[in-house]
Design brief:
It is a single chain. The chain has 147 residues and is an alpha+beta fold. The chain has a single domain (11-143), classed as Thiol Ester Dehydrase, Chain A, CATH 3.10.129. 18% of the residues lie in helices and 42% in strands. It is globular and about 40 Å long. The two termini are 23 Å apart. The mean pLDDT is 94.
């Protein structure tokens, strides 16, 4: 498996790390990565299925945050020569959305792993637009186990 270099800003590179496919891809760049942390970007296009009245919905923002966590795990697993695994949001805690971003905005999400045990992770997420934190949450995610 070819080693990927950070930053990853092409969609083909991102698709190697997450199980999602169009039109459900809500991340388009892995800007930084270190053990337990990542910074993930996304440009919100007007034709995104979660854009209504030129605004990215709460659902879209939550999905972006979950995919940012998935991208962290996908890159970490890729380094171990493991393929991207499907995952699920087990729970969302402390969700706070201060502002919804607009179409054509670029958002970045900081991912911080709080706990990782087997196929479960607790992740702290903070989403920023134009230098301002617009949302934060803590999620528990679970990876689907191969049978």
């Amino acid at each position: 498996m070819k080693t990927l270099k950070i930053p990853i800003t092409d969609l083909d590179g991102i698709k190697k790390l997450i199980p999602h496919r169009e039109p459900m891809i809500m991340v388009d760049s892995l800007l930084e990565f270190s053990d337990g942390e990542a910074r993930v970007g996304f440009t919100i296009l007007k034709d995104n299925l979660f854009v209504n009245n030129d605004e990215f919905s709460e659902t879209g923002l939550i999905e972006h945050m979950a995919q940012a966590a998935a991208l962290y795990i996908g890159f970490k697993n890729h380094a171990k020569e493991q393929s991207a695994k499907e995952g699920f949001i087990a729970s969302i805690k402390k969700l706070n959305i201060q502002k919804l971003p607009k179409a054509d905005e670029v958002i970045t999400t900081n991912v911080t792993i709080i706990h990782e045990i087997m196929h479960m992770s607790t992740v702290e997420l903070s989403t920023i637009s134009n230098g301002i934190i617009i949302a934060n949450a803590q999620m528990n995610t679970v990876l689907k186990v191969d049978e």
